[in-house]
Amino acid sequence: xxxxxxxxxxxxxxxxxxxxxxxxxxxxxxxxxxxxxxxxxxxxxxxxxxxxxxxxxxxxxxxxxxxxxxxxxxxxxxxxxxxxxxxxxxxxxxxxxxxxxxxxxxxxxxxxxxxxxxxxxxxxxxxxxxxxxxxxxxxxxxxxxxxxxxxxxxxxxxxxxxxxxxxxxxxxxxxxxxxxxxxxxxxxxxxxxxxxxxxxxxxxxxxxxxxxxxxxxxxxxxxxxxxxxxxxxxxxxxxxxxxxxxxxxxxxxxxxxxxxxxxxxxxxxxxxxxxxxxxxxxxxxxxxxxxxxxxxxxxxxxxxxxxxxxxxxxxxxxxxxxxxxxxxxxxxxxxxxxxxxxxxxxxxxxxxxxxxxxxxxxxxxxxxxxxxxx
Length: 374
Ligand SMILES: Cc1ncc(COP(=O)(O)O)c(C=O)c1O
Description:
By secondary structure, the protein is of the alpha/beta class.
């Protein structure tokens, strides 16, 4: 037994990828986004599981992430979506990864770094409204594509953009961005049919078939979390990450006695308190104080008292509910008929599900469950 551990269900990741591929069936390929250690799930196991589910590409953000995947034996196209320093360019190309360009200076640096006889694979990024990476000027983007087509050290592979509001159903900005993107990329695609047009993240993939184009880049949904912050069940997605700990101590707490830093919980009746050894030092955020439940033996109990670095405390009620030291505690995931979703924790914290799983710290070991890829 671990004091706290995250169990990653790789069958769920594979199933989520299959579900997303069915959505884009016959038209677009799928890139599984495994940046930030697979949104906290482990990049290598997530990439393997995604490939088992039919992912055609893997996408990351940092050059080192691509190297780690290659070192673990991940084959196939890897797209590095993020900005790269000059040093990172050679690391990225050394890993045989695709890079994204949006300035002439960067593209020339890529050309100068490309290994002899192996043209660097380049995607050109138009900023259609995210305002972050990419050029806002379609003429600059055109010139980059032309240069990547003509230079022997370069291979023009993709044309991309990224949506700012895909997760806001019914908003008018994503269609505007898509229109801007299509106005730029359609003539290029007509002239160079092999170019891969890609724009959609998970939300756009689920929301807008017109955004699927040649490739979708799905992150959050492959982990079974809902990009709209809703119940993933409704979208046919299976949460892949379960977080468990155990009951380390059970003790009586008389009416009037307090629990935890700042005495933020004072019992108003005699009750029984379980101490569970997980805290903000594990990524179980202090902001969850008084705002989260746990599951023990299929029953839901409230956390009470301040979340500390290494422990949380749970109110078992006056009869202690038969809970004993060593019982498993589920903080995220399913136990019997009860579930705690990353979306629930995100709502309690005023954040998004992405941050809940990315925020689990290295002190929490990740283990794999399920599947041929285990
Ligand atoms: C450029 C780009 N494409 C795709 C994704 C995947 O997004 P999501 O996790 O919402 O599917 C991200 C993640 O933030 C991204 O930065």
